[in-house]
Inverse folding.
């Protein structure tokens, strides 16, 4: 399979994440836990068969960073799934795409990088985009949604995603697969006590069960493996450009299948956020962290 095509498929899979989460009748904590358990289980089995991960390379420093980032990934998913519950998929997705802006803002402190005019422009544009979305009169709470709270969850998830990206800068000599197998396993273990104490891990329908399996197998394990295998043979800049299919497909899917509509100001705000992301990442296009998830 062509490497670019693999990336396209992975992005479209991630773009459909909100559709499936919206149809899972479980709290966000339990959904995130099951996603981590299923995906990490598949990764562990895959590694036993292929021996792709060299655990001898996991230094003490790397292991500590992987554990911290794994915790961040787990709660990042919880917050993102909460965003889907409180607002539309489009609002949750666009607020989640604020992560690169958080990276830009934190890089001078954590990575000692210079805050260039280009990066300041990206921050300004993204803030304007967020203002347009929040200021849209259709954003008011309804019986179905509380958009402000949902967008708040999306921004909080974006902040955790940004922390993972920043931590990954300090993890040395490990492939994306080697990082992810530890991070996802950590996510599952960290969420386990919360899930057990809450006692809400009950799947009440075959529909929810199927969608949870799809979430763990397709949206996490399969999409990650597709992306990792493609990165070996594709130009990083091309992969970064193709990654915009993720939010774009999410908006298209939410319109087609969930009948969610976006006002003109939401569309303008969303476009500004995506433009700001492109500006922020330009000239520094690195391997995408696929913990969201990526989504």
């Amino acid at each position: 399979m062509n490497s670019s095509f693999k990336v396209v498929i992975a992005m479209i899979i991630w773009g459909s994440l909100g559709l499936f989460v919206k149809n899972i009748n479980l709290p966000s904590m339990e959904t995130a836990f099951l996603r981590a358990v299923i995906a990490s289980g598949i990764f562990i089995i895959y590694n036993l068969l292929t021996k792709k991960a060299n655990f001898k390379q996991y230094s003490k420093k790397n292991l500590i960073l992987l554990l911290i980032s794994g915790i961040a990934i787990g709660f990042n998913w919880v917050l993102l799934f909460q965003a889907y519950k409180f607002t539309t998929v489009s609002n949750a997705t666009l607020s989640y795409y604020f992560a690169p802006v958080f990276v830009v803002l934190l890089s001078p402190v954590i990575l000692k990088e210079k805050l260039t005019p280009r990066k300041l422009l990206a921050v300004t544009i993204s803030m304007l985009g967020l203002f347009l979305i929040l200021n849209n009169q259709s954003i008011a709470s309804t019986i179905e949604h509380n958009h402000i709270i949902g967008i708040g969850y999306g921004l909080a998830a974006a902040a955790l995603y940004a922390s993972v990206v920043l931590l990954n800068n300090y993890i040395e000599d490990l492939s994306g697969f080697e990082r992810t197998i530890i991070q996802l396993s950590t996510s599952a273990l960290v969420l386990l006590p919360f899930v057990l104490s809450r006692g809400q891990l009950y799947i009440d329908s075959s529909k929810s069960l199927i969608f949870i399996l799809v979430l763990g197998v397709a949206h996490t394990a399969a999409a990650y493996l597709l992306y990792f295998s493609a990165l070996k043979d594709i130009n990083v800049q091309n992969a970064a450009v193709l990654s915009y299919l993720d939010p774009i497909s999410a908006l298209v899917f939410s319109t087609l299948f969930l009948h969610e509509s976006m006002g003109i100001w939401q569309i303008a705000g969303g476009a500004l956020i995506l433009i700001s992301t492109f500006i922020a990442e330009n000239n520094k296009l690195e391997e995408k962290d696929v913990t969201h998830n990526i989504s």
User: Anything to note?
Assistant: The chain has 13 helices and no strands. Residues 60-86 form the longest helix (27 residues). The two ends are 23 Å apart (CA to CA).
